[in-house]
Amino acid sequence: MAARTLLDRLPAIDDDIADMAAKLESAPASNGASASAVAQVSSGRERQEITCRHSALKKFEPGKPVIVEIESAMKAGSARLNYRRVTQASDGLLST
Fold it and tell me: Which of 3, 16, 90, 93 has the fewest CB atoms within 10 Å, measured from its CB?
């Protein structure tokens, strides 16, 4: 069996796009609620920056999880940690 490429899939992709366009054309008119919901989601939300502090590990043990605890004067519902592997040769990773 020969390896498939994206070019092999183009006719099926074009058919899928045509099917979606036909469904869009035959869809009932919106009452405005869906347009409002789409606008709200698409606008993005303003994120508040919160100053946090953490203490570095005293000892790193390879193969064991690294637990990061943060402190802040303000309450945060969640935090996002951007980090790189120790080698610095790989792309940044994201954990939430």
Answer: 3
Phi, psi of 15 (to 5 degrees): -65, -40
Asked if 57 and 86 touch (Cβ cutoff 8 Å), the reply is no
CA–CA separation, 76 and 82 (whole Å): 17
Per-residue pLDDT tens digits for 17-40: 999 999 988 888 777 787 788 777
Reported as type and span, the H/E element at residue 52 is strand 52-53
Among 57, 58, 84, 52, which Cα is nearest to 68's?
57
Q: What residue segments make up the domains of the chain, in order of their start?
A: 50-58+65-96
**Do 52 and 79 touch, CB atoms closer than 8 A?**
yes
Q: What are the angstrom distances between the C-alpha of 18 and each of 25, 28, 35, 51, 87?
A: 11, 18, 23, 49, 47
